[in-house]
């Protein structure tokens, strides 16, 4: 969804990696569910390398995220519609890594 809205690969990768901090409260349940599904521990976290390699794989095989989505049945037109819908939503958004880090620090300070 982020790629459909024009968010840079760098920001998507950073956003993915930050997810692990927010998942810490439920991490034990994620690990347990993954074990029950037969997945190894490599599926437990959200390291940035995983998203980097995902982008590389998509680009090598399809050329772009948009072309990949088209190839799996999510048309360019539907991608544009999704982007238009999501970009119309109002409310606070974080689009840059440095802003996300500041928000995380603020949240941690409030919790601690």
Mean pLDDT across all residues, rounded? 82
- Gross morphology is globular
Task: Tell me the count of domains.
Answer: 1
How many helices does DSSP assign?
6
Structural class: mainly alpha
SSE pattern, N- to C-terminal: HHHHHH
Which key phrases capture this entry?
single chain, 112 residues, mainly alpha, 0% strand, globular
Explain what you see:
This protein has 112 residues and is mainly α. It has one domain. Helices cover 67% and strands 0% of the residues. The chain contains six helices and no strands. The chain has helices spanning 9-23, 27-36, 48-62, 65-71, 76-88, 97-111. It is globular and about 40 Å long. It starts with 8 loop residues before the first helix and ends with a helix. The mean pLDDT is 82.
Give a concise summary:
By secondary structure, this protein is mainly alpha-helical. Helices cover about 65% and strands about 0% of the residues. It is built from 6 helices and no strands.
Write the layout of secondary structure elements.
Layout: H1 9-23, H2 27-36, H3 48-62, H4 65-71, H5 76-88, H6 97-111
């Amino acid at each position: 969804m982020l790629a459909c809205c024009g968010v840079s690969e760098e920001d998507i990768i950073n956003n993915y990696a930050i997810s692990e901090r927010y998942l810490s409260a439920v991490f034990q349940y994620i690990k347990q569910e993954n074990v029950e599904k037969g997945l190894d521990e490599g599926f437990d976290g959200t390291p940035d390398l995983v998203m980097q390699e995902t982008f590389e794989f998509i680009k090598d095989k399809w050329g772009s995220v948009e072309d990949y989505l088209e190839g799996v049945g999510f048309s360019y037109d539907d991608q544009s519609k999704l982007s238009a819908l999501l970009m119309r939503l109002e409310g606070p958004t974080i689009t840059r890594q440095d802003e996300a880090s500041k928000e995380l620090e603020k949240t941690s300070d409030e919790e601690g």
